[in-house]
Amino acid sequence: MVAMTAGAHPQGNPRDDRFINDAHETTLAPRGLSDNFTPLTTVIYTLAIFLLDLLAGAAIEYGSVFSKTTTLMLNGLDVALVAAFLVTTFFVIVAGITGRDHLRHRALIVYLFVATLQTIAAVGALVVTARVRNDEYLWSLVDVGAAYIEIAAVFTLWYFLLDGIVPGGAFVFPGRGGEDLVQPKLIDYAFISFNTNATFGPTSETVVSRRVKLVMMFQTTLSLLVLLVLVARLVSSGRS
User: Which of 12, 56, 61, 172 is most buried as measured by Cβ atoms within 10 A of its Cβ?
Assistant: First the structure.
């Protein structure tokens, strides 16, 4: 009787099965960052993202006609981004010397939060600004292109970092021969970020982390806002 009860318990109560499965999911080990993601390449990748982000933000500020207050705010965020990059580089070097990878991860998260805040501010400034420099349509294209580059650059590093630290990994990458990629490269995450901007979601990759799904939804929202800015400016220029 006891044996029958023990055997029927996991099959007769689906809630227990779900609990067991959920408990199993929480014990998954992180994928870990790529072997190529050394302290040196961390600085190189972060520098590349930093330069793209900074140049795109400067292009938006130069091409659009912002108020004095908005311009000061954007310039302040540019300074904060530079400071965050320098601090991140310092902690990455320290983490490489001491062998504490968790310190490197936390430094990158802090930097990415500052970079994301700057991106949000740039997109928000575009949304509330209908005019562009010299009222030329070309500047609207420059603004949209710069915003797309800025969004794609920041979220590329977000996906690269989150896929390494989320238990079990955040994405499933299809590889050759039907086998999944074990150690994706930076270009794989740039591909995801670009497709999220262009098609509002991944194409061949599968998102398996709820937290990363929220991040991807946020990126899609920013991309939609940028497109709405372009449409609004086209309509405004057509009426004038």
Answer: 56
Per-residue DSSP letters for 22-42? HHHHHTPPB----TT--HHHH
Cα–Cα distance, 85 to 110 (Å, whole number): 9
Q: State the number of CA atoms in the 13 A half-sphere of 90 facing the CB.
A: 7
Q: To which residue do tokens 């010397």 refer? A: 97
Angstrom distance (rounded) from CA 146 to CA 158 = 19
Q: Write down the pLDDT at residue 104.
A: 81
- CA 207, CA 70: separation in Å to the nearest integer? 36
Query: For residue 17, is pLDDT > 60?
Result: no
Per-residue pLDDT at 178 exceeds 70? no
Which of 48, 40, 52, 53 is closest to 92 using CA atoms? 40
Flag whether pLDDT at 171 surpasses 80: yes
What pLDDT does 238 receive?
59
- Predicted confidence at residue 135, as pLDDT, reads 63
User: Can you spell out the DSSP letters for 173-207?
Assistant: -B-GGGPBPSS--HHHHHHHHHHHHHHSS-SS-EE
Confidence of residue 15 (pLDDT cuts 50, 70, 90): very low
Query: In terms of C-beta distances under 8 Å and separation of at least 24 residues, what long-range contacts does 200-206 make, across chains too?
Result: 200/224, 202/171, 204/174, 205/171, 205/172, 205/173, 205/174, 206/171, 206/172
User: 153, exposed or middle or buried, with CB in 10 Å at 0-12, 13-18, 19+?
Assistant: buried
Tell me the pTM.
0.76
